[in-house]
Amino acid sequence: MATTADISRGMVLKLDGSLYSVVEFGENKTARAAAKVWAKLKGVDNSRTIEKTWNSGENIYPVRVEKKQFQFLYKDDSGYNLMNNETYEQIAIAEEMIDGVPFLKEGGEVFVLINTENDQPIGAELPEKVIMKITYCEPGLRGDTATRATKPATVETGATVQVPLFVEDGEVIRVNTRTGEYVERVKE
């Protein structure tokens, strides 16, 4: 049995029949009262975000989750079709279950989170950073670099990313899938 001392970021907990992922957590200690543990939780099987407080040492119910590597094949009416790289088994996942969908390209890598209690997928996420080719962006103006100015650029998946003015059409860049921000240019 796990207690509040075992909480860590990314852990999946079962609360009131629903699954929640720990986004942030901490402890409040006061001189007179017992210590409390708080956590900011994001719903895995629902779209809710909640905050929960426990007394220090209270029991919690973590769910064992495995992260398996899949490859994105195509999108159709059933959702996003992914293939397990080891067993070649294919599954379809709804768009709401995938983090970073605007940066998902055919053949791209996806990590599927699988609940080990019932072997059902509970979510999917892209790698933290992906490499994208810019398909369109306006040319930058010379001498406009002192203010860290940015311009919109469209990448190969159709998503728009704010890039520095020196980045040009046709270049390859690295993008953070969690925030949608430009990270750096990539040499081919």
Q: Any overview of this molecule?
A:
The protein has 188 residues and is an all-beta fold. The chain folds into three domains: 62 residues, Roll (SH3 type barrels); 61 residues, OB fold (Dihydrolipoamide Acetyltransferase, E2P), CATH 2.40.50.140; 57 residues, OB fold (Dihydrolipoamide Acetyltransferase, E2P). 0% of the residues lie in helices and 54% in strands. It is built from no helices and 18 strands. The chain is flat.
User: What's the tally of helices?
Assistant: 0
Helical percent range? under 10%
Architecture of the largest domain, according to CATH?
Answer: Roll
Q: Give the strand content.
A: over 45%
Query: Low-confidence spans: pLDDT under 50, at least 5 residues?
Result: none
Query: How many domains, in number, for the residues?
Result: 3
Shape: flat
Distance between the termini: 50 Å
Total strands: the figure is 18
User: What is the spatial order of strands in the main beta sheet?
Assistant: 10-9-8-12-13-11
Q: What is the CATH topology assignment of the largest domain?
A: SH3 type barrels
Task: Let me know the average pLDDT.
Answer: 87
Instruction: Please identify the top-level CATH class of the largest domain.
Output: Mainly Beta
